[in-house]
Amino acid sequence: MSVLQDFPTCYVCRSIELEIINNEDFGPMTLCNECGYSWIATFEELATPLLITKAS
Ligand SMILES: [Zn+2]
How far, rounded to the nearest angstrom, does the alpha carbon of residue 37 sit from its chain's CA centroid? Predict the structure, then answer.
């Protein structure tokens, strides 16, 4: 039986302290506030009401 995650977690430290940032080159990215790891945001992450920060 597969377990569906209903909230995105950090791939590295499994934290849910995630933030969406808009990167000029890569577009929306998910940033972990716990370990600082970032990756290109997935649809699921974008669909989750995470804190969204506009990078300038
Ligand atoms: Zn992390």
Answer: 9
Local mean pLDDT, 10-residue blocks, the chain (56 residues): 71 92 92 95 79 66
Q: Which of 27, 30, 29 is nearest to 13 (CA)?
A: 30
Return the structure tokens found at 22. Answer: 């808009």
For residues 16 and 24, what is the distance between their CA atoms, to the nearest angstrom? 24
pTM for this entry: 0.70
Query: For ligand 1, a single-atom ion, which residues have Cβ within 5 Å?
Result: 10, 12-13, 15, 32, 34-35, 37
